[in-house]
Design brief:
By secondary structure, the chain is an alpha+beta fold. 33% of the residues lie in helices and 34% in strands. It has three domains: 175 residues, Beta Barrel (Elongation Factor Tu (Ef-tu), domain 3); 61 residues, OB fold (Dihydrolipoamide Acetyltransferase, E2P), CATH 2.40.50.100; 117 residues, Helix Hairpins. About 3% of the residues have low confidence.
Length: 397
């Protein structure tokens, strides 16, 4: 009986095991063939260029600094704005200065009135003095005559005393008139002095008023703007930097190339973070003194006049021909895929497979770029349709 139960149990176990087994199927991914544009990697003779770095410099830089401390009412330019000589850049608040000018002009008018009064007083005093001198002269003649008669006992003491008193009174009145003249003349001098002083103050106030309108002293470009409406500006602190548009690219050339650089030789300049590339420039100036630390010398290249965002301090490179042509691998720039600081291309093989390969880039010439390493002549590189490339894709040869 026990044996039958064991056999029954074994049958059930084997049946269950057979039921749990699954058939495994090997599924291979489907290969997709696509048509992609490719180019054959070839070595061609190209000019051999040397590249050096440098910076854009302006031939003239002007730092705009206010002449007075005041609140900014208006700023008419932004960085990159083209300006002309005499153009308004910044306008400062002028209300206080205008009130000061009005007060000075009012004081001048008051002093002019006082001056006119002094002139009239002088005229009256002079007229009075002339009359008083004539009267005094008559009184003095009469007194002398009475005095002679009095000495001869022909005039009474009362007549003598009366003539003397009239003479003294006439002299006192004349002295007062002269004192009035002197006072009027002093007032005239004081008024003239006050008017001159006020006119100087007025001239200074008008100069201060002119300082509220800050104008461009040159034709050029606003390279830096450090001020906004409502700011309080201070004397001597730069608020705008102007540069004229005569820019030059100043490059540092290795000393070993000093014999290769000639005046007026053709060079190419490319500016960083910009699409500005200049292929037909020439060397305008050579500074042959070699820096003992960097072992470089400087050259200057005049940049064309542009109404775009060129300003001093922009980094760039200059390329110049160093020797005869040599073989180089050049690829269309569109075939290169940049990932951060690294560059790659898609290389196709004879079986249609695609390889994502790291390459090193060299000089860019028009729409092509030099491949320094990573490719060999005879290989093929994909130049478009990158969105079709997947793991299971093959290129139709």
């Amino acid at each position: 009986m026990l044996f039958k139960w064991l056999v029954f149990y074994l049958v059930i176990v084997l049946s269950m095991a057979s039921c749990t087994q699954k058939e495994t199927v090997d599924i291979k991914p489907k290969i997709e063939n696509v048509n992609l544009p490719t180019t054959l990697v070839e070595s061609t003779f190209m000019p051999n260029y040397s590249t050096s770095t440098g910076l854009v410099e302006a031939s003239q830089t002007v730092y705009i600094q206010p002449q007075i401390s005041e609140i900014v009412d208006k700023v008419t330019v932004e960085e990159g704005s083209i300006v002309k000589t005499g153009q308004l850049l910044v306008e400062l608040n002028s209300e206080n200065i205008k009130h000061e000018i009005k007060a000075i002009e009012s004081n001048i008018a008051g002093q002019i009135d006082m001056r006119n009064q002094a002139i009239n007083a002088i005229s009256l005093a002079k007229y009075s003095i002339d009359a008083k001198e004539a009267d005094c002269e008559l009184k003095e003649k009469r007194f002398k005559r009475i005095d002679q008669l009095h000495n001869l006992n022909s005039a009474t003491d009362d007549e003598y005393d009366n003539a003397l008193a009239q003479l003294k009174l006439a002299k006192a009145v004349l002295s007062q008139s002269k004192s009035d003249l002197e006072m009027a003349q002093n007032k005239l001098l004081q008024s003239d002095s006050a008017i001159n002083s006020l006119k100087e103050n007025l001239a200074q106030a008008k100069i201060k008023l002119s300082y509220t309108r800050i104008l461009s002293p040159i034709n050029g470009v606003v390279s830096h703007k450090m001020v906004n409406c409502g700011d309080l500006v201070s004397v001597g602190k730069s608020i705008i930097v102007l540069e004229n548009d005569n820019y030059k690219f100043v490059a540092n050339i290795p000393a070993q190339n000093i014999n290769l650089i000639k005046l007026k030789m053709p060079v190419k300049v490319a500016l960083e973070n910009s699409d500005k590339k200049f292929d037909n420039l020439t060397v305008d100036e050579i500074l042959p003194n070699v820096d003992p630390n960097s072992r470089t010398f400087k050259i200057k290249i005049k940049l064309p006049h542009l109404n775009t965002g060129i300003k001093s301090g922009i980094y760039g490179t200059v390329s110049f021909l160093t020797s005869s042509c040599e073989k180089k691998i050049m690829l269309p720039i569109v075939s290169v895929i940049n990932r951060g600081q690294l560059s790659y291309v898609y290389v196709t093989h004879s079986d249609g497979s695609i390889e994502f390969r790291l390459v090193s880039l060299g000089e860019k010439i028009n729409d092509k770029v030099e491949i320094i390493s990573g490719l060999n002549s005879g290989e093929k590189v994909v130049i478009g349709g990158f969105d079709l490339i997947k793991n299971n894709v093959r290129v139709n040869n």
